[in-house]
Design brief:
alpha/beta; 8-stranded mixed β-sheet; 6-stranded antiparallel β-sheet; 27% helix
Length: 464
């Protein structure tokens, strides 16, 4: 007997199934980079410029890669991971001391044009590239090095081969100086990877510290430079010492004065690495993880033997030191950036900014459109609220009285119980030009922070 096949239910109830991609997340702000000058990591090619190592396997992995236990990178990683709350990862980068630093013209050749590029040949060297700047006829008069390359040695008469766009020949140059600066190495590491946040370098001079600090400060949302210095001028409050210069420039960098104390404690050269490891380890992003680096121990670093005058000279210029307080408290103090503000303030502001940006991108990317209506605006405000709620769970944002200027509906002296308020004006007040440009109404994010105690004042009253 024939049976009638059933009709599909989709005639009545039609369904479509889609799986949304996972929302993007912000960088963790808890991975540090240490730059050394060992030649283990190649500067160009596959797996070049920097490597990532995990806390559980860093030592064997670094030995496998070719580092030895006596190299600065290996020692730095050990100190970084030795802090009481160890970080999960460290990045190791390379400063290439065989790159072309300076060069002069040998023979100008012929057939060149302004803008031509050329490779620089030397046995065992690669990737050096120059660019023609000016000509004398068709011969090169001046040039610049646009890619420093690797493996070079000081030498004269190196043959250059045209790359583009013309067919010049006969050009030679003389390599007169070698080595990347620490700033150039840091910039190359940043170009190679955007995940790492903390930065410390091996044995920087004052000029390196200033160059790196001025580079890192405007990048505060992605880069924090940890400065090490043993400059006696900091200790003695000499005119225009490094700490004073950083203070006058009001830079958002975290510096520590530490010496090798006559060779007794050679690993004190890694004090900034220990400090970076401390902050990267404490910044877990978990609930209740808010921290200040003040009053913390730096494992693997010896405290400085300081007089009160020396301590005041260091900290008065917003530099930091690891000291022995009262003979029993080995503490890092005071935890201030060179601009005089607490280290945690700009760290967690960077986290908050990144979280807001990621949340807003996820909202815009997850919907067919975010309408330019008050309801659509609320979706964007909610994304800001979620970012602030995360920072409140960490403990950075906390309820307090708003002491800033009045912002829309928030008045000076008003209590912010949650520690944050995100608000905007209605779309009825939006200009036609901004609406046509697809802009939302501006969101005003007001937060109050928990703060952190770094010193205590007590008055004792007694009666006989």
């Amino acid at each position: 007997m024939a049976t009638t096949p059933p009709l599909p239910i989709s005639n009545i109830v039609s369904l479509s199934v889609s799986v949304a991609p996972a929302a993007a997340s912000a960088n963790p702000f808890n991975q540090g980079l240490f730059i050394g000058n060992s030649a283990v990591i190649p500067s160009y090619g596959a797996n070049s410029r920097l490597r990532k190592y995990a806390a559980a396997t860093w030592n064997t992995a670094m030995l496998t890669d070719g580092f030895t236990i006596n190299e600065p990178e290996y020692i730095a990683a050990g100190i970084y991971f030795s802090q009481n709350e160890p970080a999960s990862y460290i990045w190791i980068g390379r400063q290439d001391l065989t790159a072309i630093a300076t060069a002069t013209l040998g023979a100008g050749g012929m057939g060149w044009a302004v803008g031509d590029t050329f490779t620089i040949a030397q046995a065992g060297a690669n990737y050096g590239i120059g660019k023609v700047l000016t000509l004398a006829g068709s011969a090169v008069a001046t040039f610049s090095i646009i890619q420093q390359g690797t493996g070079y040695a000081v030498a004269s008469g190196l043959v250059c081969t045209a790359v583009a766009p013309s067919g010049g020949s006969g050009l030679t140059i003389n390599v007169t100086g070698l080595g990347e600066s620490l700033l150039q190495a840091a910039q190359a590491c940043r170009a190679a990877n955007s995940v790492w946040y903390g930065l410390a370098v091996y044995n920087p001079a004052d000029a390196d510290n200033l160059a790196l600090a001025e580079w890192a400060d405007p990048l505060w949302q992605s880069t924090r430079y940890y400065i090490w210095s043993n400059d006696a001028g900091i200790l003695n409050n000499a005119t225009n010492n490094l700490a004073v210069q950083l203070k006058n420039l009001s830079l958002r960098v975290l510096g520590v004065y530490s010496t090798t104390q006559g060779g007794l404690y050679p690993n004190n050269i890694y004090a900034a690495v220990a400090l970076m490891g401390l902050e990267m380890g404490l910044n877990t992003g978990l609930a209740g993880s808010f921290f200040s680096p003040a009053a913390k121990q730096l494992v693997g670093i010896a405290p400085e033997p300081l007089t009160e005058t020396q301590y005041t000279a260091i900290t008065g210029n917003f530099f930091n030191v690891y000291g022995n307080f009262g003979g029993q408290f080995l503490w890092f103090e005071t935890g201030l950036l060179s601009n005089g503000q607490p280290s945690y303030l700009w760290l967690y502001l960077a986290v908050l900014v990144a979280q807001i940006q990621i949340n807003e991108m996820n909202v815009i990317g997850s919907l067919p459109a975010v309408p330019q209506t008050n309801a659509g605006q609320q979706l964007l405000i909610t994304a800001c609220n979620q970012a602030c709620a995360l920072l409140a769970s960490i403990g950075f944002i906390a309820g307090a009285v708003w002491r800033g200027q009045a912002v829309l509906g928030l008045a000076t002296g008003q209590s912010l119980e949650s520690g944050y308020l995100n608000q905007s004006q209605p779309y009825a007040q939006q200009s036609s030009a901004n609406r046509a440009a697809g802009q939302s109404m501006p969101i005003y994010c007001c937060i109050t922070t928990a703060g952190a105690v770094i010193s205590v004042q007590i008055a004792v009253y007694t009666q006989q």
